[in-house]
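[Discussion] Sanity-checking designs against the backbone

I'm trying to build intuition for which residues belong where. Below is a structure token string of 427 positions. I'd appreciate it if someone posts a full sequence so I can compare it with mine line by line.
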């Protein structure tokens, strides 16, 4: 696996300070996808350091709150489909324009807009975010059209067929998949660097041949929400909070079945526990939450904007990380960065073999529940008992990995762009 141990000045090796960055991410707030929030935190970290950022994203229904607006950041939005044009025809037009059959109308329009912006503004670098795959498509197009230094940030397996079960097949299955994989490798060979959130994901993609040789592969974890003030916990019940969407292959049902096991063994805990699934839930989770034992314990609520989420996280007795049941956890869940930076106790329903296990030391961490029902139930009951007895449970905290804190995250990217450590950004 060719992941660089150190962040090099791959974009601007002369070490010249840079000021303006173009970010392409089809998902950006107020969109409720996890990638939208991750991109916003990435942009916020750079903006706070002094970079001027222009974001190209997909149009979304208006949200009057405007919580995502940041000083020094401008957003250019493009609708995903043209008015009055069927979706299939629009996609075909986009593919024809960019010469690749997995492009979209949005990607084609983003490439046109981006090339115009680059011609009229002195962007020092282009950063594309994936998923969705439009990031790589637009990055390759803009690199060809303008020659701007391109950094491809890939947060999840790409192409999508490389999502491991239960999300997807986890391999290049069809002729179309293999063609897509070859195209991704060729496209990324034009990038100055590929940035991934975990070494596991880097190994996974490299093992499937989609990371090109000769391009630095750099691991920078997802940024976490800015630190929250110490909270005085005065909950009537022990509050366990999951802050994130449960859908696709990730479901809360296995954890809720573990919770049922705990409550059957210790019915007195029913009145002492409150579970908040903040961000909605899939049908399996909703069905599990309606059981006789859980209906008074589990609440399913909409996800909050990051700024409000900080306050809610600060009030939780523990933060829940619920991963899909994977043979190998190749993902770095972005909420783990938020949890680690918050300093609150964390309970992880995660694969024994995976990124989260690597970061926290697996079952040596008391909050690593694993995904074995018996062990997870035992560890969950032990935490609740300790917490209700007044124990602060400091040993359940997760130490942030280098780069999870916003200021550290910005520093790693500044080094990548060629700014020496501690240097300011010139205007």
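Best answer:
Here's mine. Compare freely.
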């Amino acid at each position: 696996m060719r992941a660089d141990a150190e962040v090099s000045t791959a974009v601007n090796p002369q070490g010249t300070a840079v000021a303006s960055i173009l970010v392409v991410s089809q998902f950006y707030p107020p969109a409720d996808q996890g990638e939208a929030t991750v991109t916003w935190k990435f942009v916020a970290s750079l903006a706070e350091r002094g970079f001027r950022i222009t974001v190209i994203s997909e149009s979304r229904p208006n949200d009057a709150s405007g919580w995502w607006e940041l000083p020094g950041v401008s957003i250019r939005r493009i609708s995903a489909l043209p008015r009055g044009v069927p979706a299939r025809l629009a996609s075909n037009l986009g593919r024809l324009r960019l010469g690749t059959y997995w492009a979209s109308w949005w990607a084609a329009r983003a490439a046109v807009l981006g090339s115009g912006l680059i011609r009229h503004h002195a962007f020092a670098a282009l950063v594309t975010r994936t998923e969705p795959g439009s990031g790589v498509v637009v990055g390759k197009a803009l690199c060809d059209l303008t020659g701007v230094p391109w950094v491809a940030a890939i947060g999840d397996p790409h192409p999508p067929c490389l999502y491991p079960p239960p999300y997807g097949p986890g391999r290049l299955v069809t002729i179309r998949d293999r063609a897509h994989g070859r195209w991704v490798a060729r496209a990324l060979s034009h990038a100055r660097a590929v940035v991934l959130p975990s070494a596991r994901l880097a190994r996974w993609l490299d093992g499937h041949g989609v990371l090109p040789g000769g391009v630095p592969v750099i691991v920078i974890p997802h940024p976490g929400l800015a630190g929250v003030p110490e909270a005085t916990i005065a909950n009537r019940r022990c509050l366990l909070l999951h802050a994130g969407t449960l859908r696709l292959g990730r479901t809360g049902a296995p954890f809720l079945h573990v919770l049922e096991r705990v409550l059957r063994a210790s019915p007195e805990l029913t009145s002492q526990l409150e579970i908040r699934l903040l961000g909605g839930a899939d049908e399996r989770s909703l069905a599990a939450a309606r059981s006789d034992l859980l209906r008074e314990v589990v609440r399913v609520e909409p996800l909050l904007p990051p700024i409000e989420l900080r306050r809610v996280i600060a009030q939780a007795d523990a933060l829940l990380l619920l991963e899909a049941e994977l043979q190998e956890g190749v993902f770095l869940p972005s909420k783990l960065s938020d949890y680690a930076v918050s300093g609150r106790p964390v309970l992880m329903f995660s694969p024994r073999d995976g990124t989260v296990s690597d970061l926290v030391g697996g079952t040596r961490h008391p909050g690593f529940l694993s995904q074995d029902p018996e062990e997870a139930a035992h560890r969950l009951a032990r935490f609740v008992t300790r917490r209700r007895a007044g124990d602060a449970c400091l040993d359940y905290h997760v130490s942030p990995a280098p780069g999870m804190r916003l200021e550290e995250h910005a520093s790693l990217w500044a080094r990548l762009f060629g700014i020496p450590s501690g240097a300011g950004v010139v205007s």
